[in-house]
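Hi all, long-time lurker, first post. I run a small reading group and we've been trying to get comfortable going from sequence to structure in the token notation. Rather than ask abstract questions, I figured I'd post a concrete chain and ask someone more experienced to write out its structure so we can walk through it together at our next meeting. Sequence below, copied exactly:
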Amino acid sequence: MGKLQERHEIASDLKWRLEDIYDSDDRFAEALAHLKKDKDKIAGFRGTITSGQALLDALRERDKMDLLASRLIAYSHMRKDENNADLVYQGLADQALSVSVMLSSEWAFLEPEILSLDAAVVKEWVQKTSGLELYEHYLDDVMRMKAHTLPAEQEELLAAAGELAATPANIFRMFNNADLKFPMVKNDQGEKVELTHGRYIQLMESQNVSVRKGAFEAMYETYSAWKNTLGAMLIASAKKQLYFSRSKKYKSSLEAALHADNVNPEVYTNLLHSVHEHLPLFHRYVRLRKKLLKLDELHMYDVYVPMVPDEDMEFSREEAKKMVQDALHPLGERYLSDLSKSFSDGWIDWLENRGKTSGAYSWGTYGVHPYVLMNYQGTLNDVFTLAHELGHAMHTFYSNQNQEFINSRYTIFVAEVASTLNEALLMDDLLKKTQEPKKRAFLLNHYLEQFKGTVFRQTMFAEFEKTIHGKVGAGEPVTADLLSEIYYDLNKQYFGEDIIVDDYIAMEWARIPHFYRPFYVYKYATGFSAAISLSKQILEDGEPAVNRYLEFLGSGCSDYSINLLKNAGVDMSEPAPIVQAMQVFEELLVELEQISETHKF
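-- Answer (accepted) --
Happy to help. Here is the structure in token form:
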């Protein structure tokens, strides 16, 4: 690899064009000052929501300020991400975030005032006040919380406890990222290196079984030494969740978490049930892994090592662009034409440079095109990442184009659909064009690993959460030993009889940060399944499915997520999308079994 470039050494056509938000830092400063000054208007709206027009005026003013704040945050944070060592942009990002938090605090009175109104009155205002119909879905979303909204003084008490409520997650974060120290382990070169979170997966992908085993045992011996402390953290988090859920008159923590997205708990239980029904397929995958790795015994430290030897494929940026455009051809000329703007109009920041934020993301700000941060190295994984992030970007592009600001910001529940669908179409196109057995096996393995990590693993996590929160809700005693017992049994159930479920894996729950954001991980599995279902419809049904999908991309948050997906052609309240995803998994698995048998690798 060549020398890491400085930011100023990278050609301008390989950088994103943040000047489209603010053409200079001076313009940013002017906008920031303007917003700080506008803050003084907010108090004038307090206690005035006595008519449809007054409500409309307040909502429009809040939207105007929110939009400006979102642009300030986007510009300053993306500038900071160009080079995190640049203290100027660290300062601007802090200022923008501070102003945004201040605005949220100043406007905090508005929704409680709306909730104090009779639902029939709000409905009448929407019908009779020109312009307020734009806010119909937003107001419905606010008003459905009425049954779970307490008197003002009680709401203030709960809000004041917010910082205290974050304590379990904050303690875990500090302990896990700062205080927890791991021992030295051997790497592939036989050198002793300190085990870290970042090195763990890399070591687990080693072809050397002793390297994998050493890292695995060192990781979980360390967590085991702190088992009771870590158990107390997670149990405290579950009890906190139950307290706030019960305070808000929900039957359970699960119901409270899903109600935020207006999702019926049946969606969650459908996922668990459907994946359970197809666990024999995952057990077949585990058997194939054991066979391809030529191991007498398959252990839990063998689940990350690639089943198929890595094909040394490298792709230039131009090749990556063409691969993505070719793959997304089924989405039609309009999509492709709009997608081409991402390559020509300064949407993408392509290359790594010193100080640049790692990884990849898409960021959208209303009224300006979306942006994509990449650290492109030319691997196949990078090509999939490009397709993924452009999926997010196009979702943002169409939502912003078709919706007013209030209805433009799509939810987390649907966010991964557009990105994963692009990856599914890319994989389909590459498989159609790849006949060489080893390369084809490599692609099939890549896709199977996505299913393993996104559907099976996340569903197992979701089941673990449902079990422990259910026990806490029922008033049963929950200990660190019980957490480990539940987690170990789930691993045995999910991975099957052809793998030795090592005792150490019982402690894996202790290192999963998502468990401190309860009932979040299931969205990865449902989003992935929805994307697989929609991609199949697009490939098989053509234009009608494409039109429904493009309408979905343009719908933002103008309706509830479940309804938007249903209109697109996938009903997540039914098991069918999960079942369809499992059918795709089986097709991939069967082909990899056949190729490996025919070509003996």
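A couple of things your group might point at:
The mean pLDDT is 94.
The longest strand covers residues 184-186.
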